[in-house]
Design brief:
The chain has 330 residues and is α/β, with parallel strands linked by helices. The protein has two domains: 195 residues, 3-Layer(aba) Sandwich (D-Maltodextrin-Binding Protein, domain 2); 113 residues, Periplasmic binding protein-like II (D-Maltodextrin-Binding Protein, domain 2), CATH 3.40.190.10. Helix content is 41%, strand content 17%. It has twelve helices and eleven strands. The strands form two sheets. The chain has a six-stranded mixed sheet with strand order 2-1-3-10-4-11, with helices on both faces. It has a five-stranded mixed sheet with strand order 7-6-8-5-9, sandwiched between helices. Helix 7 links the parallel strand 6 and strand 7. It is globular. It starts with 7 loop residues before the first helix and ends in a 6-residue tail after the last helix. The N terminus is likely disordered.
Length: 330
């Protein structure tokens, strides 16, 4: 049995070294004086995109708790690298934070060339928002009722079978799926979500691992079908969707998470205050319904646990990318 991913629960072990926080001029700031002015939330996605909706929802909730205006700055490009590099260069005073997926940052290091090598040291994760997993999707006209039927077809197709993805996590999952089952399916690279959908519909693609927002939206329009989720247990937000393991693909658990990040060196009291806001936000029914509607599950962690999950993501992605035999792209 191939053991592909450590369980998220193990990633939530307390860390001894919290945030690599050093003494800086910002350290003179106390929890009582922070925040004294507006906060800037960096978004790695274009305005109006699905992820931009997520970021603006949480930014609004943070502003209500901080008692200060919150300005969202969209800095899309380079698969999130532009936003993360901007954060890394910001002052570590808590006034510039990034709402993004730490898992995607780890993915970039091993799946893209020309990615900054030190993002695991120059930024820190201070809170978590929700966890998610890729969905195995196929065209709506496919007659497969489950993964076993799809795999039987793919074995008949051999190297004429094809797959793609709409995210780094999806791409990793697709290649791990191929390796675990020893399929000869060909990966089609550089696909947008719209391209993936079109090629699934016309039959050019046999399957794709896509994000939950895309999968649920298109399935509701009957443009595609969801066969499984790549998590060790069913998502609470989508409990009718079986896991890959339930359908004969053991151990394929490729969950990611969204969180709040700050520059390394952010004072502990400030990081703890941001974490407190986020914990309160995620605990609210409104937030949990919002998260569930996007096919994700709420995730609460301390600053120690959030940073440990971030660092573990780098170690795990390095191992899994090698296992999936993926070569970095430009």
């Amino acid at each position: 049995m191939i053991r592909l991913v450590r369980r998220t629960a193990r990633a939530l072990r307390p860390a001894n070294a919290l945030l690599a926080i050093s003494v800086s001029p910002a350290a003179a700031q106390t929890p009582d004086s922070y925040p004294a002015r507006e906060l800037h939330v960096i978004c790695a996605f274009p305005p109006g995109s699905g992820a931009d909706v997520w970021v603006r929802f949480f930014a609004q909730q943070v502003g209500e708790r901080a008692g200060q205006p919150v300005l969202v700055e969209n800095r899309p490009g380079a698969n999130g690298n532009i936003a993360t590099e901007y954060l890394a260069r910001a002052r570590p005073d808590g006034y510039t934070i990034l709402i993004h997926s730490p898992t995607s940052i780890a993915a970039n290091k091993f799946m893209l060339k020309n990615t900054p090598a030190d993002l695991d040291k120059s930024i820190v994760t201070v809170a978590t928002l929700f966890k998610f997993a890729p969905y195995l999707t196929v065209g709506a006209t496919r007659r497969w009722r489950n993964v076993q039927e799809m795999v039987a077809y793919l074995r008949q197709r051999a190297d004429r079978a094809s797959f793609s993805a709409s995210s780094p996590t999806g791409r990793l999952t697709g290649n791990l799926f191929k390796e675990a089952l020893q399929l000869n399916a060909v990966e089609i690279l550089n696909r947008t979500s719209a391209d993936v959908l079109y090629d699934l519909q016309i039959g050019r693609l046999d399957f794709a691992f896509t994000d939950s927002v895309f999968a649920r939206a298109q399935a509701s329009e009957q443009n595609l079908k969801i066969l499984a989720v790549a998590a060790h247990e069913r998502m609470k937000s989508d409990s009718t969707i079986p896991t890959l393991e339930e359908q004969g693909v053991p151990g394929l658990d490729v969950q990611g998470f969204f969180g709040v990040m700050a520059p390394a060196g952010t004072p502990r009291p400030v990081a703890s205050k941001i974490n407190g806001w986020i914990v309160d936000v995620v605990a609210q029914r409104l937030t949990q319904e919002f998260i569930s509607n996007f096919g994700a599950d709420p995730l609460i962690a301390t600053p120690d646990q959030a940073e440990r999950m971030f660092l573990d993501s780098f170690r795990e992605w390095g191992r899994l990318v090698k296992l999936a035999r993926i070569k970095p792209e430009h």
